Amino acid sequence: MEDLRLRNNSFKSFSVSGKMLGKQFSIFSSLLRELKPVYKDNRFQRIVWLGLLNFLSLLLLLSWCSVTKSMGLLSFTHLIFFDTLCLCICALSIWVEQKKPNAHYTFGYERFEVLAVFVSTTFTFVSSIFIINKSIWRWISHTQIHTGMLIPESC
């Protein structure tokens, strides 16, 4: 009888307390376990630092965009945002590169590179659509541009 109870409980994925059959389950610890061998790669470290630098510059540019209402600065901010997303794809492809073939993925994860290129080009198209949309909206609404803040931003 106890064996049947254990078998029925094994199909439950999560409980309210976050325990799974007496073992503590944490998404953060599983993420760290997956990223620890990848972080040793120098390419991944560079991508992480570039991603952080891009994100910080994105926050600064977003604050300046709200003050100046500059279309050129806004399009550059969109470009930085989608570049940050492409850096995330590069980091994910380094993680996938280290995965080995198994019974479920007999070719390994080789096809992921094709999907990564597809997603990167899709990000580029979406970025251009955002910029075209904002340009048309700006052309219709004739928004006032504050040029006093643009000189420090260009430096």
Automatic annotation (TrEMBL):
What GO cellular component entries does it have?
A: Golgi apparatus; membrane
Q: Which domain of life is it from?
A: Eukaryota
Q: Which residues form the signal peptide?
A: none
Known Gene3D superfamilies for this protein?
Answer: Cation efflux protein transmembrane domain
Which keywords describe this protein according to UniProt?
A: Golgi apparatus, Ion transport, Membrane, Transmembrane, Transmembrane helix, Transport, Zinc
Its localization reads: Golgi apparatus, trans-Golgi network membrane
Q: Give the way it sits in the membrane.
A: Multi-pass membrane protein
The record's Gene Ontology biological-process terms are: zinc ion transport
InterPro entries in alphabetical order: Cation_efflux_TM, Cation_efflux_TMD_sf, CDF_SLC30A
Q: Which residues form the Cation efflux protein transmembrane domain?
A: 52-150
Q: What is its main location?
A: Golgi
Say if the entry is tagged with keyword Ligase: no
Question: Transmembrane: is it a keyword of this entry?
Answer: yes
TM spans (from-to): 47-65, 72-94, 114-132
| A GO molecular-function descriptor | monoatomic cation transmembrane transporter activity
Known function: Has probably no intrinsic transporter activity but together with SLC30A5 forms a functional zinc ion:proton antiporter heterodimer, mediating zinc entry into the lumen of organelles along the secretory pathway. As part of that zinc ion:proton antiporter, contributes to zinc ion homeostasis within the early secretory pathway and regulates the activation and folding of enzymes like alkaline phosphatases and enzymes involved in phosphatidylinositol glycan anchor biosynthesis.
Q: How does it assemble?
A: Heterodimer with SLC30A5; form a functional zinc ion transmembrane transporter.
Put simply, this protein is called Cation efflux protein transmembrane domain-containing protein
The record lists the organism as Caerostris extrusa (Bark spider)
Q: What is the lineage of its organism?
A: Eukaryota, Metazoa, Ecdysozoa, Arthropoda, Chelicerata
